[in-house]
Amino acid sequence: MMPSVPRDDLEVTTAHCAMCGASVAAGSTCAQCGTVVEPSPTERHAGASRMHAAEWSTLTFAPFWVFNAVAGADGKLRQKELTALQEVIQRVALTDSPLLDEVLAQCRKDLDGMLEAWRTDGRTFDVGLTQIRQILDRRVEMAQAAAFKRGLLSIGRRVASANGTGLFGLGTKLSRESREALSLVHSFLDMPADEMPQGL
Question: Is the dihedral of CA 99, 101, 105, 111 positive or negative?
């Protein structure tokens, strides 16, 4: 499958400047009078002080794009891989990233609804993961962005392990397709080489 061309066309939330009434992108400075126009509480997610609604929505799809990259690597989506993803999402303290834990908590609120929203979104995993990386680079402190990416790669590893000797079995030998898919996830997230899990 040929990769899609990455895009950075996230929806921009607009607001009106309280000083002069001009239409301005929320979170930016008014070109007319210089007033900073902050997003409203509904347009900014509490988990990231400068996260716009469209960016937060994109982040919540991150586990599903990783799942799609890994589970679809051999052209077949198996129920046990979907079960692995569901188990990962249901775990409360899975990662060392508070932001990713918050994403997983959002997914737990309506997992079926989130899956349906992701399926109808239309972005392929390469486009989605590229946008995830761009959002993290723009909005999140470097160490937390790195922790978020490591958590996503861990999710991918757990999904890939579902085709091995046990759902989360230690020492599971991953298929060549799964290893290549995890390498793609690593690449699209622009992670350092030393954060690639051993054996991939």
Answer: positive
Q: Are 37 and 15 in contact (CB under 8 A)?
A: yes
Which residue has tokens 């009078």?
33
Rg of the chain in Å (alpha carbons): 18
Collect all residues with Cβ–Cβ distance below 8 Å to 145 and sequence separation of at least 6.
Answer: 136, 137
pLDDT tens digits, one per residue of 59-118 = 999 999 999 898 876 666 677 778 878 887 877 555 788 899 888 888 888 888 998 999
- CA nearest neighbour of 146 among 96, 91, 197: 96
Q: How far apart are CA 63 and CA 1, in angstroms?
A: 21
Q: Which two tokens stand for residue 123?
A: 């972005």
Eight-class DSSP state of 166: S
pLDDT in tens, 54-63: 899 999 999 9
Assigned token pair, 171: 């020492």
Biggest CA–CA distance in the chain, Å, is 64
Cβ partners under 8 Å of residue 162, min gap 6: 78, 80, 81, 83, 84
The two structure tokens encoding residue 65 = 């794009």
Query: Distance between CA atoms of 23 and 41, rounded to whole angstroms?
Result: 18
DSSP-derived 3-state class of residue 165 = coil
